[in-house]
Amino acid sequence: MTFYFLIFAVLTFFSFVEVFGLKKKDSTFFFIILSFLLFLLSFLRWETGTDWEPYMNFFNSSDEWFIEGDFEWGFARFNEFVKIYFDNYTFFLFLLGAIIFYLQSAAILKFSPYPILSLLVLWSTIFGNVFFVRQTVATVFLFFSIRYIQEKKFWSFLSMIFLAMLFHRTSIVFIIAWWIYKLRLKPITLIIYVAISLSLSVLLAKLFESLGEFAGGVVQQKIDLYLSDSENSFGSKTSVAEIVAKGIINKIFIFGIVTSMLGKITNKEPEFRGYFNLYWAGIVIYFSVVSISIVLVRFALVYDMVLIIIIPFVLKYTENLYGRFFMFLMFVFYLLARFYTALTGNYIELFVPFRTIFG
């Protein structure tokens, strides 16, 4: 476990230096180095991370073209290509990792004022995408596609969604980002929508609890079967009420801070409004579906990833030095809490110890 917290500490140190005076050129250099180190971990790992066994089994069974299975077309063909021509699972991880970390790094460098800080947020929330599954590939395609919304290139944006859907069918939900990004709703309107979705979530959670395990279980089972696979189970050993509570703490905390600074940041960085719109949409989607099925929360994943851009902007436009230092410390403690929860949750044995191909 020490290994994971060491990475957190290193990223925190470089983030502090970046926020409080590191030159842009130096920041980019260290970001590339740190991203490359995480990339190495993504394919040198062995029997570490969620869904290792089912993915490994699927790869080993992909020894001929167009085998029938439950995985999406693009992911299945990718497995078959590597299995047939190279027959090496580490090489398979290397190729997928290369796609993920290239798109992820290119997007962060384009969108974020503090790329190393973005990497810290990414490590704290989803382990920097080191333990990727097929939805991770889809998510980075979608995250990268935000640039095409900014550039008003609809067909390029649509092509990225198509590529993402080859790896995970839920990617189609991101098509509404084209219009959400451009919204200019008043803060009070954004708050009302969040309040409605949160109220809906609480009411549904209580409804399922009152109906008992039978009714709630049937609904959950049918939806889970429809989107069948085990990845990103979001702590399915945890009750819906606990997940809703964690969601309130994680999301409303950030939403409240950013809403209070929205006008100030948007006046200087017009694109920030688009990032915040996407994060807001993720909150609404999350609370609207979490009580129906934990599996459906994956619809909000790419919207949630925009958090890695939002936090750096908040720090950049906290202009008072002492205020920025306090805000930095607050975010570090927030991220540390999220990181600790993610690492020591129901599936700690999947991450600790960190195993590699070297033993």
UniProtKB/TrEMBL annotation:
Record bears the keyword Membrane: yes
Q: Does the record's keyword annotation contain Hydrolase?
A: no
Residue spans crossing the bilayer: 6-22, 29-46, 89-109, 116-134, 154-181, 188-208, 243-263, 275-294, 300-318, 325-343
- Supply the Pfam families for this chain: EpsG (PF14897)
Q: Which InterPro entries match?
A: EpsG-like
Query: What are the protein's UniProt keywords?
Result: Membrane, Transmembrane, Transmembrane helix
Domain of life where this protein originates: Bacteria
Q: Any idea what this protein is called? A: EpsG family protein
Species, as recorded:
Flavobacterium pectinovorum
